[in-house]
Amino acid sequence: MPNWTKWLTSVQDKTTLALRRQAAFCSLTIRRAIPDSRPDPSQPRSELDLVGSRDIHLTNSDLSRHQNPVRLPRIDESAAEDSRRSSHRKLLPNLKELWLVDCPKLRALPGGLCPTNLKVLYKERTHSFVEIKNLDFLTDNLTLKHNHSLRRISNLPSLKHLQVDDCPSLEYVGDLAGLQHLHLSCPLSAECLPPWLSDLVEQQQSFRKLELQCSLPLLKRCLMGEVNWEIISQIPEVRIRAIDANEFIWYNKNPYMYDTNVGSA
Question: What ranges does the record give for the region Disordered, renumbered to this chain (predicted)?
Answer without folding.
Answer: 67-88
